[in-house]
């Protein structure tokens, strides 16, 4: 927003900070408990950031709607209304994510188990910080706006001074708004108007509903067919970049050596006196016999 009062840069920054705190808390707890840190866990913060920012948008949208409905209400009632609207959605999304990752801990792969433990725990902390830390930030930001304070310096903005010789941009950045009036709750968001007045009536039309059912049936049928075509295995080429030197290696390996079958390896599972020449000759003789 152009208004130096209605600008919510710090509010959004605190929403990202909330996700960062969740990552730090979960990683610290898992490391303290001795859970191994594997390379794939480094991808977890990006997942947490996505969910945390989504929760932040839900909280802010609910707060804005509550502020428009109850302009004269106390901060306590506004926050209660916000949690009543947003907490259910945030709780359901967090619960499904946590269950999905904790179910993944049943796998036999230790690296996947560690990744699921770290990420699932981070989702729990993300939920806790959203419900506590970010809610407090919403209240502080609301008090700043009600006090007509600048978003960056938190100093009171001069409203009502003579602005005739000042430009609209100067007034917006330094006095709160082009008109110089105190900050007021904004009207309904254009996106909300679009969904309420246009998209909602369109999607509830009976012919559109029939079309949606048909499209979903086609999607479901295609999904079932796709599940029947899944084959176990992996092409190692897909794990490397297209311009990687590994790609020609795999091509040549398949071209010249694919007819020889899988590579056979022999493992000696006990202590061996490699310094003893007789033992070394015995190992060499064993290898020759296997060949």
Q: Outline, from the CA principal axes? A: elongated
What is the number of strand segments? 0
Radius of gyration: 30 Å
The pLDDT mean sits at: 86
Mind describing the biggest β-sheet?
Answer: none
DSSP helical segment count: 9
Tally of separate domains: 3
SSE arrangement, N to C: HHHHHHHHH
Uncertain residue ranges: 179-183
Helix content: 55-70%
Tell me the β content. under 5%
Global structural class: mainly alpha
Structure write-up:
The structure is a single chain. This protein is mainly alpha-helical and 291 residues long. It has helices at residues 9-32, 44-69, 75-103, 110-146, 168-174, 190-203, 206-228, 246-257, 277-290. It folds into three domains: 8-179, no CATH class; 195-228; 236-290, no CATH class. Mean pLDDT is 86; it is low at 179-183. InterPro entries: Patched_domain-protein (IPR051697), PTHD_SSD (IPR003392), SSD (IPR000731). The chain crosses the membrane at residues 9-38, 44-63, 83-109, 115-140. It is found in: Membrane. It is a multi-pass membrane protein. Its main location: membrane.
